[in-house]
Write a structure and sequence with these properties.
- The complex is a heterodimer of chains A (645) and B (225).
- With 645 residues, chain A is mainly alpha-helical.
- In chain A, 63% of the residues lie in helices and 1% in strands.
- A two-stranded antiparallel ribbon of chain A has the order 1-2.
- In chain A, helix 16 (445-468) packs parallel to helix 19 and helix 19 (516-542) packs antiparallel against helix 20.
- Chain A is globular.
- In chain B, strands 1-2 form a two-stranded parallel sheet.
- Chain B has one domain: Up-down Bundle (Four Helix Bundle (Hemerythrin (Met), subunit A)), CATH 1.20.120.80.
- Chain B has 225 residues and is an all-alpha fold.
- Chain B has helices at residues 24-56, 71-96, 100-125, 140-172, 182-206; strands spanning 65-67, 210-212.
- Classes of the chains: A mainly alpha (645), B mainly alpha (225).
- At the A-B interface, helix 9, helix 10, helix 11 and helix 12 of A face helix 1 and helix 4 of B.
């Protein structure tokens, strides 16, 4: 307990709360004294004096809240100590990287600022699962509401807050999960000791924590009803006060994305082991590289879009046309345009889904040869298809706007580019089928999740062109069909591969083996649960169920399907609790795992479990191709001091 | 590969270099690439703002327009900013030749000119402190994009000036010489980059399209005034 209260996590969160609290109160008082109009403040921004009397300035003020939220982030970063080394450098010192637990128990590394990429990867992983549970809980709440026609226990505003928060919190969880995979695996797979910039890596993680806290706090500070997209003019005019917390939490999470993307790109360029050419890297590294390039670049544009909404709400700058002044229009001064937001937003947010699924697809390609004992079919094609998806995926964004008032001449080109995404994705599917063709398959839990991922991703992939085609999109846009399609792509492209990766590298991370029976139970509950959920979502969508609606009439004839979706959601929730139990209990008591339990050729499995501080005792050398499973005398890496070489 | 002690002559208490860890030379090579990647990333930020400018600042026929603003001061501040890049370059070349005096002078001149530019943007272009700013905050998409472009660029100038002052101060303590001056190089790349952005932003705000006057009629909204 003593270690928890002195950890970066606790002190940082405390610092964030205190900074936000005092900054908000100081700024409101200042603005109140300047004569501004205000509305009641949420409870934890209330200031009490020594006698417990409420001395909060009478009112709640949005510009003050924006600045206070930004201050609170700085408060977290300063208090958690992630900036300490950089501040020392500014003062002219040259601090060394510290390694190890500094005399404390080993587990405290995970709640303190640590520069080791494996620690950061596991930190991301644990945060991802925690945020996933929060987001899943929100989903279960509004799924219970939707199980029957009529409003049972939620009202419109709370329903809106729940689905909006579910969306963005899940996205934060997915980014943390992507961070977990790329951080833990990237450097060790290329044979490096750590990321290119270990301190920046720690910063990426520790900036995502306060931004996730800001998002979660937004639920309690008035909530918001904009969905995860936050389209103006609704987001610029809604009176629900949590919308600024949503925008800022989303925005600040972008810092984490950009920094970690940049870090992985430089690591991959410069820190590959001797002999590891680009086409001899493990296939996951290619996928992570493509995702990182996207993360590093396009994230900036959503930052611009979100800043514009924040500024329009807080200062009154007219970007999106919520405030059209007739005098200005008469003088020929242009007004804002909400379509601008959609362009800037989707220029990021469409490629963002490739940031989530590319590492997942990389995991599928990485694991299939191991469990089929056959070479990966078409390595170069797979490697380049990741880059292809990233490139083509960057020029398809306006297919989200086919029913909007954007220039009609652009609709068909965007439809065509959208359908082109199916080409590199199809390359991956053919390679997966060809890889398992006549292979000696072993159906352990990671392999089951990989096969489940392929089946679910196929469902998501096949429903994609239907939505990308203008004629069918006119009918299906904003319906539950979109919800079904999106969940299928993300479960197939991220959630299932992420779970496969957790089970597969669990012995590498902890040195112990998970419980195989519980792992299989998790899979056999989750896969049917997900298929039922996704197919029923698509079905109710085609029958007229809209997205983001708290209720539906009994005469739509979809009550049975809706109840089924809710049951399936609960099944998925329970299966994830089984996984959590499995991971926690196995880490404490399970048998020790061998260094290479799967017979993998990948370099990290040639080093002991858990991995040493610098991954390998001495630099490794690559002498062959990575996926020559089942080929006699084929060597991939020479790891000094490893058993068997 | 043997564990060779890496001699970092600034480092009083260096230890044996772990063969798995990058050497200082390799690290600087990665730092340089990282900075260029950062520039690439930032290019998307500025590109998005430029896209907003050309998307919003159009008349009914779709032709490019711009707000009517005074040309003289803007041109003068642009010259000041571009001039600062010259002194930045002088400082970098000087430290590469161990010329500490020119280095200090160049850094201070760069920071000073950067500051002049910054004050010019805030007090002249934005007209803070004037009874009526040239572009009131609620002046439609003109004001919105104008403050977005100048503001986002100004934030980068502020960080640049702070970085330059930090590096100048560390240089005064003798941390850099001809062999080891990555911080100075980083400052220079960043500063030239911020200048380059202005080379695109200046014509986009002040030159491209025909000028439309913004009527002055509405109350001024700002945070502290």
């Amino acid at each position: 307990m003593r270690y928890f209260f002195t950890s970066s996590l606790f002190i940082g969160a405390l610092g964030q709360w205190l900074t936000g609290y005092f900054a908000y109160n100081a700024l409101t008082r200042l603005r109140f004294n300047l004569g501004y109009d205000v509305t009641p403040a949420p409870w934890f921004f209330r200031l009490r004096n020594f006698f417990g009397e409420d001395i909060t300035p009478p009112g709640f003020d949005e510009p003050a809240m924006v600045l206070a939220t930004l201050f609170s982030l700085i408060g977290f970063l300063l208090c958690s100590g992630v900036l300490t080394d950089w501040l020392k450098m500014c003062a002219g010192q040259r601090p060394h990287l510290t390694h190890g637990a500094q005399g404390k128990p080993e587990w405290t590394r995970y709640i303190n600022v640590d520069v080791n990429h494996k620690v950061i990867g596991i930190q991301y992983g644990m945060s991802s699962i925690f945020i996933l549970l929060v987001g899943g809980l929100l989903a279960i709440l509004f799924r219970l509401e939707l199980a029957m026609p009529g409003l049972q226990f939620l009202d419109g505003d709370s329903y809106n807050t729940l689905f909006s928060a579910h969306g963005i919190i899940m996205i934060a969880a997915i980014f943390a999960g992507v961070g977990a995979m790329t951080n833990y695996l990237g450097p060790v797979m290329v044979g490096a000791s750590d990321m290119a910039f270990p301190r920046l890596n720690a910063f990426s993680y520790w900036v995502s924590v306060p931004s996730a806290l800001i998002l979660i706090a937004g639920i309690f500070m008035g909530g918001w009803d904009t969905g995860w997209v936050g389209y103006p003019t609704h987001s610029t005019s809604t009176t629900m006060a949590g919308v600024q917390m949503f925008l800022l939490g989303f925005y600040l999470n972008g810092f984490s994305s950009i920094a970690s993307g940049l870090n992985l790109v430089v690591t991959t360029i410069y820190m590959r082991a001797k002999g590891m050419t680009y086409f001899r890297m493990p296939i996951f590294v290619w996928a992570a590289l493509a995702a990182s390039i996207l993360q590093m670049t396009v994230t900036q544009t959503v930052g611009v879009a979100l800043t514009m909404v924040v500024a329009e709400r807080a200062i009154g700058l007219d970007f999106f046309g919520a405030i059209a002044d007739p005098t200005l229009v008469a003088a020929g001064v242009p007004t804002g345009d909400p379509i601008l937001f959609q362009h800037l937003f989707w220029f990021y947010s469409h490629p963002a889904v490739y940031v989530w699924i590319l590492p997942g697809l990389g995991i599928i390609s990485e694991l299939l040869p191991v469990f089929s004992r056959k070479p990966l079919f078409g390595y170069k094609w797979i490697a380049l298809s990741s880059v292809g998806i990233a490139l083509v995926g960057s020029i398809v964004w306006a297919h989200h706007m086919l029913t909007s008032s954007m220039e009609p001449m652009w609709k068909v080109p965007f439809m065509i580019s959208t359908l082109f995404v199916a080409v590199p994705t199809g390359v991956k599917f053919f390679s997966w089928v060809a890889t398992i063709w006549e292979g000696k398959m072993r159906f352990q839990t990671p392999m089951l999740f990989v096969l489940g991922a392929i089946s679910v991703f196929l469902l998501g992939g096949l429903s994609g062109p239907i939505l990308g085609t203008i004629a069918t999109d006119m009918h299906l846009h904003d319906s539950y069909f979109v919800v079904g399609h999106f969940h299928a792509t993300i479960f197939g492209g991220f959630v299932f591969p992420f779970f496969a990766a957790i089970y597969y590298w669990y012995p590498k991370m902890t040195g112990r083996m998970y419980n195989e029976a519980l792992g299989k139970l998790h899979f056999w509950i989750m896969v049917p649960g997900f298929w039922v959920m996704s197919l029923m979502q698509m079905r109710v969508g085609m029958q007229g169920m809209r997205r983001r609606i708290a209720d539906y009439g009994p005469d739509l004839g979809i009550a049975a399907e809706q109840a089924l979706i809710t049951v399936a959601t609960l099944a998925i929730g329970w299966s994830i609790l089984i996984m959590l139990y499995n991971l926690v209990s196995s880490a404490r008591s399970a048998e020790k795992a061998p260094a290479n339990p799967w017979g993998s050729r990948s370099p990290e499995f040639q080093s002991p479990s858990p991995l040493p501080e610098f991954n390998y005792d001495a630099p490794i050398t690559v002498v062959g191709d990575p996926y020559d499973y089942g080929i006699e005398d084929a060597t991939y890496v020479v790891v000094p001091g490893a058993a068997g070489d | 590969m043997s564990a060779v002690a890496h001699h970092d002559h600034h480092d009083d208490h260096h230890e044996l270099h772990n063969p798995m860890e990058p050497t200082r030379k390799e690290q600087i090579r990665m730092n340089r690439m990282g900075l260029w990647m950062f520039c690439l990333s930032e290019a998307f930020l500025f590109f998005a703002i430029l896209a907003a400018r050309f998307y919003l600042w159009r008349d009914a026929d779709g032709a490019a327009i711009r707000p009517y603003l005074e040309q003289g001061p803007a041109l003068a501040f642009t010259v000041v900013l571009l001039l600062s890049s010259y002194f930045m370059n002088r400082a970098e070349v000087a430290i590469a030749n161990d010329d500490k005096k020119t280095f200090s002078f160049g850094m201070l001149m760069t920071a000073g000119l950067g500051l002049v530019f910054l004050l010019g943007v805030i007090f002249v272009e934005w007209g803070l402190m004037l009874p009526e700013p040239h572009l009131p905050v609620n002046g439609g998409a003109f004001a919105a994009v104008f403050y977005a472009m100048t503001g986002m660029h100004a934030i980068h100038v502020v960080t640049g000036v702070i970085l330059i002052l930090i590096v100048w101060n560390n240089g005064r303590k003798g941390l850099y010489d001809s062999k080891e001056h990555w911080a100075v190089e980083a400052c220079a790349i960043y500063w030239h980059y911020v200048d380059l952005v202005w080379v695109f932003f200046y014509p986009a705000i002040y030159l491209i399209g025909y000028a439309v006057k913004v009527p002055h009629h509405s109350a001024i909204i700002s945070f502290f005034m």
